Amino acid sequence: MSNLIVIIVLSYLAGSIPVGLITGKKVANIDIREHGSKSIGATNVKRVLGLKWGILTLLLDASKGAIAVLLIARLYLGNFPFPNETPFDDFTLVQIIAGLAAVVGHIWTIFAGFKGGKGIATALGVLVGIVTIDILVALGVFILVVTISRYISLGSILAAVAVPVTLFLRENVFHVDIQSYGTLLPFLIAIALLAIFTHRKNIGRLLNGEEDKFSFSKKFSNS
Fold this sequence. Notes:
Structural class: mainly alpha
Order of helices and strands: HHHHHHHHHH
Number of domains: 2
Largest sheet: none
């Protein structure tokens, strides 16, 4: 049990690394939380500092989830501390727990007053290794929605919803035999609901026509 707690704590701390906050300090000597949407996520970094820094932040935030799933979870030793009733083997279940801890760390980071990003990029890093096909479909949804609407938040929300929807359609409409489908679906639904919750302010701005649209231009100047 103590070993699993260590993994959860380490995954939470990895997810808590405030990449956007660090990027703002290093690139422009600013507190990114005082600009744009006040978020430390990749979208706000792009909005304030420019596209390349937004992409870098996105990749680093995603890597936090991947590190939790692919590296930190491998520290697990011994038997599971409680009966494993899921179709997953013990290690895969540990990976899911570690990934969730990393997402929670990104959203409620201990290094920035428990106010972080929205968790989409970190969740992406977690899910790539678990449901690759569904993530690729979600990525297509994200690109299509952002291209048409120019709203990154809307693309993120619909992409998060697309993951469990794709899994459901593959299993029930296209009759693909997906291993551990019964366990994966509620897990992915929970991730999608978390994404919707963390984007609740964006949803309000979208409904009011006040959400910023995506642009390739760099808005912030330190001169």
